[in-house]
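Extended Data, panel c. Modelled sequence:
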Amino acid sequence: IVALEGQGTITLADRFDTALRILEGAAEGSAVPWTVLVWLRFSQARQLTWQRKRNTKPAHLSSAAQSLSELISARWKDRGGERLVWRLLLSCVPRGSRSDDGQAIRDYILVIMQKY
């Protein structure tokens, strides 16, 4: 996570894709979901850069959010003893879809970038 963020050109879709790969390999009971939670929470709180120097296709952003949401939801269902962390993780991911809802997410990011 630190190496990825150190690049300075990560997009929100890249962040979601990386979180998905990390969480897929997380063993039950490990601290990995909590680590990813902190990372995504910093992103959600706008403490990490979004989409600087690169552009993301809205469909890719929406698909990445959807895939991550689906994994988190499945883990919430399958891992009853860890439901708190999976519920908190889900709150850090916007609702994605397989359609073009990514444009709304991308437009919101552009509004935020203009403010800061």
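Residues 10 and 66 are 18 Å apart (CA to CA). This feature is highlighted in the accompanying rendering.
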